[in-house]
Amino acid sequence: MSENDGQRFDRLPATPAERIVEGRVSREEVVDYFEDRFGIPPETFADYTFWEKGAGKIWIYAGEAPTPLEIEAIGMTCLRTRQEHWKPTTDFVQRFGGRATDCVIELDSEEARAFATGEDQEIERWDGDWGYLIGAHEIAGDLEPIGIGLYVHGELRSMVPKGRQREL
Amino acid sequence: MEPLERYRPIIDDFDAFLEACERPLGNAARVNTIKASVERTLEALEEEGLAYEQADWNPRVLRLETGSPGSTWTSFHGFTHGQEEVSAVPPVVLDPRPGERVWDSCAAPGGKATQIAALMGDEGTVVANDNNLGRISALRFNAERLGATSLAVTNADARNYSLNRFDFDEFDRALVDAPCTCEGTIRKNPDALDNWSEGAIASVSGVQKGILRRAIQATREGGTVVYSTCTFAPEENEAVVQHVLEEEDCRVVDFDLDLEHSPGLTEWDGDEYDASLERAARIYPHQNDTGGFFVAKLEVTA
């Protein structure tokens, strides 16, 4: 096993059996996670590759690139691994979370605004799993993901990053 | 406005031009079709009670009546991206197709690069480069907010850009939205002309020539290169294109633009340019009540 080099993009191995970098997740595990936790169909990602740059920072990319690759960015960051609970990013959830069927909490307009400003709020009605949820609200006739929240002890903590928070 | 006097001989209705340059510009936004369709975006704007007007030449370009276009749900979701109306012109002229390899040589803060990705249905490879590391963070922020997954971001001097970092060795298309003296942004930025000098024009035109030459070299035969600036100076526009016509294998081609504009110049200040430069477009603020822009479309030849 070799070590992760945090300065470059490395394509994820297809399966855990093909892993050569210590602690690196596989494409299969990432796609399974999105399906198991959020019900996002695996075929959603058929035309995408997944990469690690930085310890546990996973990126999703639709373009062409060799591995390894030393540039500033490819596609978008989508997931944090190498920690006890994996955590999707707000930008990923906004882009792909519309396909989720599980762990999506629908917020009314006041809750949605509070969530987008980064506020934590007591929400007692959730009876699903605790952990990371997709906060969503209805806009122009459809449910639209706002970002990622952490639900524990009856509280939804907004994980919308500072730079993405807005007073709406 | 003093520096603009030099354009009196080349601009029709120069007084209307000067008047337009003194009027502030309204807010414009582009619909980001990676995140939502035009129809859904318009519906979302209506729900929020935001008034808009769709541009005649491009249904994806909106003029918004709001003081804070960033504090809206449509912006938060990345359905819209604040972008000057004329800034949306070069990617449309570039006309990229899904699956292609496209280079945006001076991409930060990413309005045009993400527009290119959207025009490609976010399928293919858009290499968004900028030489300024500070501006790259803005580019990355916008790309992720707008959900563009086909972008690769690099930080290099475009004049000697190396494709060694990728598996392919040429692009299908390239956009050179060059650093310039920004005279055309005077309505948005009243300080735009504060540091204006003929020396600044001469110095930046050298950089522009270097980047455009590299873009032609890095694009396949038959591929398309679009050159644009937000300035009126012929030294930064026609003269730069003239230079690459002389030094590289390429020709100026026609394009349709449903926005009022004037043809490119074939002479300026005693210099003559190739007759094909008439095919370029000069967009003046008084023609469509926008900012100013120059756009030329080139085809790479053998």
TrEMBL record, chain A:
Entries under Pfam families matching the protein: DUF7122
Boundaries of every DUF7122 domain copy: 3-75
Protein name: DUF7122 domain-containing protein
Protein source organism: Haloterrigena gelatinilytica
TrEMBL record, chain B:
Record: active site: C230 (nucleophile)
Coiled coil: 28-55
Keywords, ordered alphabetically: Coiled coil, Methyltransferase, RNA-binding, S-adenosyl-L-methionine, Transferase
GO molecular function: methyltransferase activity
Keyword Transferase belongs to the record: yes
Keyword RNA-binding: yes
Domain SAM-dependent MTase RsmB/NOP-type: from-to ranges: 17-301
GO biological-process terms attached to the record: methylation
PROSITE patterns: SAM_MT_RSMB_NOP
UniProt binding sites for S-adenosyl-L-methionine: C106, A107, A108, P109, G110, G111, K112, D130, D157, D177
The family this protein is said to belong to: Belongs to the class I-like SAM-binding methyltransferase superfamily. RsmB/NOP family.
Protein name, entry field: RsmB/NOP family class I SAM-dependent RNA methyltransferase
Organism name: Haloterrigena gelatinilytica
